[in-house]
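DDE_Tnp_IS1595 domain-containing protein (Nephila pilipes), 104 aa
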Amino acid sequence: MLFLDFLKETGLIKSECIFHKSNSPMKFAAKNSLSDGYSCICRKSTNNKVCGTPKTIRHGSWFTCSKLRLGEIFMLTFETILGSATSEIGQTYSFSSATLSIHQ
């Protein structure tokens, strides 16, 4: 949750998710089946039935189009700032050459 809190506090992801169909606030929830480990879930109840519609925490952020996990994006960014060689980054984090071609 610490990483998720950091992303929200810095504005890298939305601090609150709203379900567009009902304009209801969604809850952040841990979801191990997702690569990022979290999603937003609509908890609005209608006729004693919880909606439960999920939305990625990436929605509306600059992470939306990336296929990398959030942690991988941060490690790639960190290594780039440090000036690490592309070959070192690829070896250390097992990124594909297609991923690193943007970084070169």
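Residues 86 and 104 are 6 Å apart (CA to CA). Strands lie at 17-19, 24-30, 38-42, 45-46, 49-50, 54-56. ok done for today
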